[in-house]
């Protein structure tokens, strides 16, 4: 029958946290399914419900119908800025986990409830500081190096492994469930941002090697590793999380088995060594998707530079949620959620933003310096539709009638994609 648990089924998602991704509809579906099951545990559910597949199918169909009706009733009130939920979180002001010069601060659905599709962590490692060997059960990990140098090790289910050193501007990607470690190389503290393709993920609920061994009988560990029990008893009796050691040698040590089994696809991509994917009056964009970085099947990353006053034009993403980390500059970011719902927030360095899939939005650099934003999408295939492209693809007569404009201003509308609009003097 498979593994059974005494946890209610709406808590079966896990790196020890929160429900799986969803939105209003999916959250309501969990609620309704649990009501339908009458609060049964999974063991009872397995015995009683799966015996009658026809009855279960009919019941779940009723759940879907009631969920759809409830979702409409649960839509936020229409009109006014407050009808959309908060989409900004000051991640660098949170406490997180700090050990010496090592720190981790996270933004998940717990801190930013709207961010159901993506979570992020701002992490710093001192020279020699190590994020210990661990894996993530429910999410892949994508990272961008902002400052300093870092080394990673990673192993895949087929036994292939890789050791890489990362510099500012580099990206890594570890598929879900791949064991890995991170270590600062110095000379100063390194800083990188991690993005995970599930908002339910928590960096503080990962599967760490010391935590696992500490909660496994000593005789079992001794038999597994071929060590005497008295040596096993010297292993940490708790999760280390951040280990503090020496800076490793410049050339990576060989793994314990004395040889690398190289993976088919590398886990490292030198994003900022590439030419920009787009250069515009007002800014530049660097983008890495699964097309450029084949192993990164579930996350696309973007570095967006906006000159003072420049605007990343109104647009939306049909296939993905958007997660943002402000590296440099101050911005006004506006979100449109249909039905007159809109919200506008001011973002500063260290803030995190989240735009749900399909929501219209823009990014405006309000500072007097060129700014930089890290953006991630929970898809390996990048898609976007910009307002300028959309309008330009329609007949002038349609635009005249739809926008209630005379033909002359319609003739002045962009005839190709703007993407980034530079700061302009007021148009008379």
Can you lay out the helices and strands and say which pair or pack?
Elements: H1 24-37, H2 42-49, H3 53-73, E1 88-90, E2 97-99, E3 102-107, E4 119-125, E5 129-135, E6 141-147, E7 150-155, E8 161-166, E9 171-174, E10 179-184, E11 190-196, E12 207-208, H4 209-214, H5 218-225, H6 229-232, E13 242-244, E14 268-269, E15 278-280, E16 283-288, E17 300-306, E18 311-316, E19 322-328, E20 331-336, E21 342-347, E22 351-355, E23 360-365, E24 371-377, E25 385-386, H7 387-392, H8 396-403, H9 407-411, E26 420-421
Antiparallel strand pairs: 1-22, 2-3, 3-4, 4-11, 5-10, 5-12, 5-13, 6-9, 6-11, 7-8, 7-10, 9-14, 15-16, 16-17, 17-24, 18-23, 18-25, 18-26, 19-22, 19-24, 20-21, 20-23
Helix pairs in contact: 1-3
